[in-house]
Amino acid sequence: MRFVDEVEIVVQSGRGGRGSASFRREKFVPFGGPDGGDGGRGGHVVFAADAGLGSLLDLRGRAQWKADDGTAGGFRQMTGAHGADLVVRVPTGTVIRDVDQDLVICELLADGETRVVAEGGKGGLGNIHFKTSTNRAPRKTTPGGPGESRRLRLELKLVADVGLLGFPNAGKSTLISVISAARPKIADYPFTTLVPNLGVVRVGTDHSFVVADIPGLIEGAAEGKGLGHQFLRHVERTRLLLHLVDVSEIREDEDPSATPLGRWRVLRDELRRYSLTLAARPEIVVLTKLDAVDAETVEALTAEFHAAGVTELFAISAVTGQGVTTLSTATWERLRDLAPPAPVDDPLGM
Q: Is residue 74 within 8 Å of 68, Cβ to Cβ?
């Protein structure tokens, strides 16, 4: 299935039904008087979060969404039927923004959470409301109220506890496939992961957390290079970042930014440029692909990262399983002590 994480649609709630101009006409009831009922309310447009959905793809092919109108009132003070509400199901983690007002209406974070984004028009009044002592046979009614039209931009931000960051081929997909049941595409070329993947990691028998494998970022991602901030948004709701650094390629004559420590610094800078709040989120640095280097190299790299101020550092090989269980346990223990993430500042208007 193709992953779609942003879509723009127009929603229209239903119009209220017209009030009825009716009079009682029954045998043995002369001068029965007005008995016109009110019109029914127009249908609301309701958004509902559904944890079973993984993208906004179902909304991409339909630009207009309209709820049903209410029906007109009837005789004997019968109120018209309310228009059926239109329920639009979206994945959990969807942000709903009013385009014209540039206003975030809501964020649906929990499965089953709902929000009315466009209220249906009120039903019109029947002529019974206009009866007075001097006007015993009013023919006046009111039309139903108009529905509400809104142009909305829907943006999906994955809801996960942990976000995996790293350059392409840093080992993110391999790690999530080992620690969870997720099965992302894995290959020996860059950008094999084109969509975020979610996996549930079990720790022991009683604990678990959700991890998101974010497609590989490159230098300039905050300005949209590569996959850019299209996927940086997906780490905004995570409470903890696991920053994976590939240690299998070390060349002495390369640019310092291409060394393991240099690559870590580049992506840290991209996070700061995208959002200072996001850059301040707790982070664990993970040196990956230990099976490709010797112990002395790992020891030297560990010393470099510690000297650069990294306090939480783990070294693993997802292929052999070395250090993976220790990392999962430490991640759970770190999450246990963390509060929910603060809202991310949004300089890019996302």
A: no
